[in-house]
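TASK: fixed-backbone design
INPUT:
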């Protein structure tokens, strides 16, 4: 009677063997596949991943502080997890790192996402501004200073620094000017070329002061440093529209839609349409740079509902921060519904996204934080829309009235 392979059902191979101790058979082909899999897997590698947050666990922690941007959180969670695996586990396959580009409007949370990751992870992370860099030989920071900062952030531990993460903000500001002049583009293509040196797998040397006036040279390998770049890319939507327009046929005649409806449809379409590498190249980046940052993540503009959630829900939301500051003075402060809606509406008008939430009320809250501690009897206070719109004198008058009312009630 011919034996049947329990894995693939093969009956033709004469080399089907019985696995002792199990009620199973295996043919030579399946045995070879299993042998290769076990040969590539090192049990010690699995143990080295103990304690590392899995992607869903990392995202769950990010969810406590970051509202919306689900795609970005998912991709960054996987990227960081894979980064940990690359630098901790031993593999016979050379797994290359995957650098990431975050594209989204001002105030959508690009930098905040990276700052939150920095707080969650045990790896050193540095956040730098691309606008401070110039081509070597010009006034300004050279790109090697990124590695210098990472080395210092890692406590001058070279092996730890070589496993770190770098976030380059305002990356869209180093595009080629494209003005037709032959002068050197100090803040454009030259900086991109300089960044190539540290983004790709290479050894980069930089000097650092060692104590007094002595300097020492540090050589850092960038093979295992994960780079994330981010920018607003103002005007990129026009490039996407142009690309999409080329892909559409212009056959027949249609009814012209109202302008407002057309603009809304276009905005929704742009939010859904993925950004491709050619779009970034057409924006002004050299292909060599984009080739080393292959994953492009779109950070969408925050909706009013998301702005409201950002204002109130995260552990360190703006509202909770103000409440805590007043609590330290023994005062319980609440914001009514209209006040919260006013803050959201004003932030949206300024088109600054989440960044505009605190700026909308910061000055008025400073007035309150200056005046409230004067009144020892005020232990509870409600921030209203009227109060946020009021002048300094109106704030003082409101507090005086509350204090008088509390004095009368205490009699």
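OUTPUT:
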């Amino acid at each position: 009677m011919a034996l049947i392979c329990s894995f693939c059902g093969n009956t033709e191979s004469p080399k089907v063997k019985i696995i002792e101790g199990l009620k199973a058979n295996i043919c030579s082909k399946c045995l070879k596949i299993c042998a290769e899999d076990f040969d590539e897997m090192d049990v010690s590698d699995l143990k080295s991943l103990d304690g590392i947050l899995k992607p869903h666990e990392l995202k769950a922690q990010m969810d406590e502080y970051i509202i919306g941007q689900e795609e970005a959180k998912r991709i960054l969670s996987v990227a960081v997890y894979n980064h940990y695996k690359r630098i901790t586990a031993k593999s016979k396959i050379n797994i290359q790192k995957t650098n990431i580009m975050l594209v989204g409007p001002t105030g959508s949370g690009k930098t905040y996402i990276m700052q939150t990751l920095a707080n969650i992870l045990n790896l050193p992370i540095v956040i730098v501004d691309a606008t401070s860099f110039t081509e070597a030989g010009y006034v300004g920071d050279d790109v090697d200073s990124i590695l210098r900062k990472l080395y210092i952030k890692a406590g001058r531990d070279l092996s730890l620094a070589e496993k770190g993460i770098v976030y380059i903000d305002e990356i869209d500001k180093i595009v080629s000017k494209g003005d037709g002049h032959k002068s050197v583009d100090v803040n454009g293509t030259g900086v991109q070329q300089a960044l190539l040196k540290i983004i790709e797998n290479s050894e980069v040397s930089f000097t650092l002061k060692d104590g007094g006036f002595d300097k020492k040279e540090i050589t850092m390998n960038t093979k295992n440093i994960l780079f994330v770049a981010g920018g607003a890319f103002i005007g990129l939507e026009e490039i996407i529209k142009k690309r999409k327009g080329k892909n559409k046929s212009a056959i027949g005649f249609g009814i012209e839609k109202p302008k407002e409806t057309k603009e809304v449809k276009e905005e929704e379409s742009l939010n859904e349409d993925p950004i491709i590498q050619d779009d970034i190249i057409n924006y002004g980046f050299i292909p060599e740079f984009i080739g080393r940052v292959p994953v492009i993540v779109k950070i969408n503009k925050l909706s009013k509902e998301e702005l409201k959630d950002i204002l109130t829900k995260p552990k360190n939301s703006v509202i909770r921060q103000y409440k805590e500051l007043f609590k330290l003075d023994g005062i319980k402060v609440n914001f009514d519904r209209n006040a919260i809606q006013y803050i959201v509406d004003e932030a949206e008008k300024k088109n600054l996204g989440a960044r505009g939430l605190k700026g909308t009320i910061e000055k008025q809250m400073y007035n309150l934080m200056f005046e409230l501690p004067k009144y020892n009897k005020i232990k509870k206070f409600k921030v209203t829309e009227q109060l946020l719109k009021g002048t300094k004198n109106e704030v003082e008058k409101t507090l005086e009235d509350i204090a008088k009312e509390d004095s009368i009630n205490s009699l």
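COMMENT: The chain has a mean pLDDT of 78.
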